[in-house]
Here is the input.
Amino acid sequence: MNQPVLAAGCVLWRPAPSGAGIEIALVHRPKYDDWSHPKGKLKRGETLEECALREVREETGQSCTLGPRLPTARYLANGRPKEVTYWSARALGGSFVPSKEVDRMLWLPPEQARTTLTQPRDRDLLTAHLSTRD
Here is the structure.
């Protein structure tokens, strides 16, 4: 059995500018034409937490602080098992710069984020994130 590809990411959130509720950050990856939470592969010598923080910074331009750990997503990617460890993370500020990997980013209210996410597993992560905030 192949060793799983290890990755980490975050359900990134911030208080809504209106003062009511929160907003969720979603990133668009042109290679897959999908909307997802920021995530990426672990680099050699990096912890899962360091990977999650780095990927959020690279894909959204935001610095953040990790909150509760969320369920780990396990699935096949290009025929190989992949394991993505997620955290809820509060955005602390920064600015988005489009790249080849991520060309767009949105801040959306949770229900709009849910309908925008491409993968059901990402919608499940959003549900898990929201349950940590009750």
About this structure: The CA atoms of residues 28 and 104 lie 5 Å apart. The chain is about 25% helix and 45% strand. The radius of gyration is 14 Å.
